[in-house]
Design brief:
The complex is a heterodimer. Chain A is of the alpha/beta class. Chain A has twelve helices and nine strands. Chain A is globular. Bound molecules: zinc ion. Zinc ion sits at the interface of chains A and B.
């Protein structure tokens, strides 16, 4: 199978230089560099036509511009914020361990995620053509989060409240969840709002879990299907942040809060996307439970290693079929079609994928 | 004076609400809080542009200051947080006398 999901990222100033300016320049220079980094993504889209032309010649970008392979660079943000990124360089590709757990775990987590996508799907990094994976650790103070911010990863140290200290770089499913947001940015570009946003979240949970399963050599049957297992801080009781196997059961709080992820369309939480932080862009981290559970049902019904068949169907759907505003139903129909194309129309895989979406009330 | 901060998003997708009331703070803390509120210049803070899109898993904030019968609210995405507003948020969320609640969105 040939994929044309990636476009060349050429811009006049190399991203390295822009990032250096974004990190070290005057405020005006930083702003300009950040604008350029964003703009270069737009120009990538304009190069889709080049990729299309190449595809008619049965060439890929890789044939005309061989990708460099895995390149990881880890920086220390030294408790700074966005305007201090990327920070001080601590470890480049091939360097020995630096000796700071966060630095070395971010390096290893990026490596595990890169290896998974490369070995299982033939994908070369986030953009499909060898994008350097830049990570900055020690972002902010007691920062309870990790995120892909459009061109690099940031990792906080955790406060002990939402996440245990030092856990955000340790959990490979968290690392892979965030890096998958990068892959979505370069492919389906699912808009982070309501159903398309919940799909964006779900693909990150699905591949976050698959990277963990792949690393542990676990079959669909053996996997725990949890996201962020064992890293919850003192404000939360429970096993993990989310469960693909049993959405809505992962955690609770001493004051009566609990995991409210639905597993079926009848429980869909139709929150507004109104800029109110309480509404989570229209419930993107809540309703992701529905497509998450559909993936779990399909993968366990198909059996074996979840990344081999169910994972491939979801990967091709994300990288080649979905559009920015795709909704649950369109995603479900696309996975059913892709299952037929990859493994045979009316075959076991296609029937089980369709049944999974029917069980969660989407089809 | 009452300051409340609602933080949503992040990879966890949780909503954390932090509130401080000057009535339950030491006088030194009240002075520090007032000065940080002034420096934050809430009326000039960049407004988050309504229905969003936006970047996955970043924090979104809603900050409300109630003082002398007036309330002022700003919404801002973490990536656009100006330094003084960031400083106010980190002060409020680390005050020992704060009230804090964590829960799901909605
Ligand atoms: Zn996410």
């Amino acid at each position: 199978m040939t994929t044309f999901d990636s476009m060349p990222a050429c811009c006049i100033a190399p991203p390295d230089l822009l990032e250096a300016v974004a990190g070290q320049g005057t405020p005006e220079e930083r702003e300009a560099a950040l604008r350029t980094l964003t703009a270069s993504e737009t120009s990538r889209a304009q190069r889709a036509s080049v990729t299309g032309a190449l595809s008619r010649l049965t060439l890929t970008i890789a044939d005309v511009a061989p990708a460099p392979g895995m390149v990881r660079t880890v920086y220390d943000a030294e408790n700074g914020g966005d305007f201090d990124l990327p920070g001080k360089k601590r470890r480049g590709e091939g360097d020995p361990p630096f000796g700071d757990a966060a630095v070395d775990e971010a390096y290893d987590g990026a490596g595990a995620t890169y290896d998974f996508y490369r070995t299982v799907f033939g994908r070369d990094s986030i953009d499909g053509r060898g994008l350097e994976i830049v990570s900055s650790v020690h972002y902010g103070n007691d920062y309870d989060n990790a995120a892909w911010i459009g061109f690099q990863m940031i990792y906080g140290d955790g406060s002990g409240q939402i996440f245990t200290k030092g856990s955000l770089t340790k959990a490979v499913d968290i690392v892979a969840h965030e890096l998958t947001h990068g892959i979505t940015q370069f492919t389906a570009h699912l808009v982070y709002s309501k159903q398309s946003g919940a799909l964006n979240e779900s693909f990150s949970d699905v591949f976050g879990s698959l990277v963990k399963q792949y690393g542990l050599g676990q079959s669909a049957e053996q996997a725990d299907w949890l996201i962020g297992e064992g890293i919850l801080g003192s404000a939360l009781r429970g096993t993990a942040l989310r469960s693909l196997k049993a959405p809505g059961t992962a955690w609770s709080t001493p004051t009566g809060g609990r995991d409210r992820q639905p597993a079926h369309m009848r429980d869909y939480l139709d929150l507004p996307d109104d800029g109110n932080p309480s509404n989570d862009h229209g419930g993107v981290h809540l309703n992701s439970g529905i497509p998450n559970h559909a993936f779990y049902l399909a993968a366990t019904a198909i059996g074996g290693n979840a990344w081999e068949r169910a994972g491939r169907i979801w990967y091709v759907t994300l990288t080649e079929r979905l559009r920015p505003r795709s909704d649950f139903r369109q995603a479900a129909e696309a996975t059913v079609r892709v299952a037929g194309e990859l493994f045979g129309v009316d075959g076991d895989e296609q029937r089980k994928v369709r049944a999974a979406w029917q069980q969660v009330g989407v089809l | 004076m009452k300051v409340s901060i609602v933080r949503g998003g992040g990879i966890a997708g949780l909503v954390t609400t932090t509130t401080v009331d000057s009535a339950s703070l030491a006088s030194q803390e009240v002075a520090e809080l007032r000065s940080r509120v002034e420096r934050a210049g809430l009326s000039d803070a960049p407004e988050r542009s309504g229905a969003s899109g936006g970047q996955p898993d970043r924090f979104d904030y809603e900050l409300t200051v109630e003082d002398g019968g007036q309330a002022h609210t700003v919404r801002v995405c973490e990536s656009d947080l100006p330094g003084p507003l960031r400083a106010l948020i980190s002060y409020v969320t680390s005050l020992p006398g704060r009230q804090e609640r964590v829960g799901p969105p909605g």
